[in-house]
Design goal:
The complex is a heterodimer. Chain A is of the alpha/beta class. In chain A, 39% of the residues lie in helices and 18% in strands. Chain A has 5 helices and 5 strands; from the N terminus they run H-E-E-H-E-H-E-H-E-H. Classes of the chains: A alpha/beta, B alpha/beta.
Chain lengths: 109, 246
């Protein structure tokens, strides 16, 4: 299922969506970026509450399909701009990482 | 120019995780025994034991610096240092409005004791001090500067609350001119691994929570001190810190 389809099915608000057609193959949850860098897989939906600009760099590096910000976390404008530039999809939701992962698990093959 | 042996990262009994023996006079006495000349008190999210520490340090001939170890919203620890005690206390009041209020559980976290210059308890801090504030790492330096202070990431060589573990690298933004290592021997290793550290001055802090964590003097800064006064040394210290020790 693609990022755009997941966004619609889970009612996630897109903050940036430059590549909505990317396929989501799995999920990773984590907030310590040093851990995420070494563990998230290409094509994952990465669920986090971290909103520092470095999430954009980590998403590019790991080639995740999208970042999902949980629990109502928002982005500062400069982070959103950096994500647009690097073509990183960022979605957000008021739900917890657990609730998001539970719903995602039913949709990802 | 003279050598000033320093430790800018020491906790008192106000920090929940620090030993209750970390009283202002014990810290100053231990620092004097260790041969240190400039010592900063940096309790978690509070500078309220700094007035007592100033009194205690003066008795030992140590130059005190008022500070705080701020926990950012990302759970990153920043050492904040102030040239003037009164500015540190004003910064303390400003930080109060960014604290997330949770009652301290002394059975889990430890006591948070406020003291006077005679090591007498004068109160306790009721809310937990060590948890994250709502200040982001992007916002914190500007707030510190408002009170004429300087801040830099603490113990960047540690997993817990270190900026590199949390953000994946040493960030370019906000631009820090300094960084603290817990293990000074790792300076070249860290500079080699993180190019963003190449122009950043490296300080070594003990992050002492127990008296025996205060290490024998090893790390020093060269500071101009003629005609000698502790205020002049402190002033030149901040000049050096602001310049990233260049």
């Amino acid at each position: 299922m693609t990022v755009s389809e997941i966004a619609e099915r889970l009612s996630l608000s897109p903050l940036t969506l430059p590549c909505g057609e990317r396929e989501i193959g799995g999920a990773y949850i984590g907030d310590l970026l040093s851990w995420v860098m070494g563990r998230a897989q290409s094509g994952d939906a990465w669920i986090t509450i971290m909103s520092n600009v470095n999430i954009v760099a980590v998403a590019s590096l790991t080639d995740v399909a999208c970042i999902i910000l949980a629990e109502g976390v928002t982005l500062e404008d400069h982070v959103r701009e950096a994500a647009e530039q690097k073509e990183v999809n960022i979605l957000c939701s008021d739900r917890t990482a657990y609730e998001l992962a539970k719903s995602l698990a039913g949709l990802i093959q | 120019m003279n050598r000033y042996y320093y430790d800018f990262h020491v906790h008192s009994c106000l920090s929940p995780c620090a030993d209750n023996d970390m009283t202002p006079n014990n810290i100053a006495g231990m620092a004097a025994l260790a041969g240190l000349q400039i010592v900063a008190l940096t309790d978690h999210n509070s500078a309220r034991n700094c007035p007592a520490f100033f009194e205690a340090a003066k008795k030992q001939g140590i130059i005190p610096v008022a500070g705080m170890e701020l926990t950012t919203a990302e759970d990153i620890h920043l050492v904040c240092l102030f040239e003037e005690l009164k500015d540190a206390l004003r910064f303390n009041d400003a930080v109060d409005s960014y604290r997330i209020r949770i009652k301290n559980r002394t059975d889990i976290f430890g006591e948070q004791i406020l003291m006077n210059g005679e090591d007498e308890p004068i109160g306790v801090e009721e809310d937990l001090l060590s948890n994250a504030t709502t200040l982001t790492i992007e916002q914190a330096p500007a707030l510190v500067e408002e009170y004429h202070g300087i801040c830099y990431p603490a113990h960047i060589d540690r997993e817990a609350n270190g900026v590199i573990a949390t953000l994946g690298t040493f960030p370019q933004s906000p631009p820090f001119s300094l960084a603290e290592l817990h293990d000074g021997a790792r300076k070249e290793e860290y500079r080699g691994r993180y190019p963003t550290l190449s122009d950043v001055g490296i300080l070594v802090g003990s992050d002492a929570h127990y008296l025996w964590d205060i290490r024998d003097r090893e790390y020093f800064l060269l500071l101009e001190d003629e005609p000698y006064s502790s205020d002049l040394v402190r002033h030149n210290l901040f000049k050096a810190l602001r310049g990233g020790l260049q």
